[in-house]
User: What shape does this take?
Amino acid sequence: MSKPSTPQGTRDFLPAVMARRNYIFDTIRTVIQKYGYVEIQTPAMENLSTLTGKYGDEGDQLIFKILNSDDYLAKANVEALEAKDSKKLLSSISKRALRYDLTVPFARYVVQNQNDIIFPFKRFQIQPVWRADRPQKNRYREFYQCDVDVIGSDSLLLELEIIQILDEVFRDLKLNVVIKINNRKILRGLAQYIGVEDRMTDLVVAIDKIDKVGLEGVLKELSGKGFSADELKKVDELLSTDSDDLARITSLVESSEEGRKGLEEVNYVIDGSNEQGLKSAKIEFDFSLARGLNYYTGTIIEVVGEDFPVSIGGGGRYDDLTGVFGLKDMSGIGVSFGADRIYNLLEDKGLFPEKLGVSTQIMFVNLGDAEAKYCLGLVAELRANGISCELYPDSAKMKKQMKYADGKNVELVAIVGETEMGHINRMVKVKNMTTGDQVTQTFKKLISDLKQ
Assistant: This one.
């Protein structure tokens, strides 16, 4: 029999890890609920037609397709099958797929439920997504996204609100971050300056990889896309400019109406955020920030740790994502928190609270059938008072029971024997597993102490 394992790019989570992950999720949830956002969920799978065409060609290739039920080859395109043409074959053997992100399913959700929600609609969603990517450090095939979106308004006040949420979440997580900002309209203005507006998608997708492949890699990819020597020279000069040189970019896009509009929006968001005052974040303009997803139309946001260059969050403005599902002119903006990378960063910096993962406040030792039955009543009373507790299920050796309590980080252990059971005031012997101290007290006093 082969050794059991998880699929590559997926993980099991032990209780201590889950406690830390929930600490991150709960911190995010607490902040965004203060801003009036409500939680929703969508199915793990969507119709394949819902997802394809929304992320660009590279994104479409990373969607996990689900084979049709029963005999999926029964209705397969025989010609495509014999020719081993996977693209033509796909539509006949797969109608569904695992969601690639939470934003496109959210757009579908808004259109499908438009008569039952109030606009502007402010939602957050914490669920797993799947990508058929090559697993590597900080990159998994199954991972959680924490999305915050508001749809139904094009007001730039919402950009300011999103920035405030990011700042407050990372303040509560005790992380200093840099919020990088750009605008898709500026990128279009730069594409016009280079003379490749009709190939803007190719330009944006390549620029988005600059942190991974460097300038040389970007130029090589664009050369393969047919960019001329003159066009590549302009790209080279552009990307050799400091990415936060707002004055330089202003001079390049001043002839583009759309580029000027993007600059106005960027300046509004940066100035407004600074006026509001950021607590844990710095906000910076970065014209090389592209985020290659096709649906962004305005503001683009990315969050990195101040001393940790990898992205731990990002998003942007999309003006007509719902239009592909039949609901036109529905502008929205949202960001996604990179929970897994945030986890790694908090762990590396030792920023998780020490007491996370303690699910049991007190454990009752099992000294035998009579004692166990007596303790069941005490345990029930403690739980009725909101105190987490448990009774060890077997009358095993004391050493084994104490080892169990120690392994679960249970701070207090209660011992109830014949003497305690026979006392009129219901006495309980309590041992502190941290200090080793032991005290005998009334059950009433124990409840009072634990509630405090």
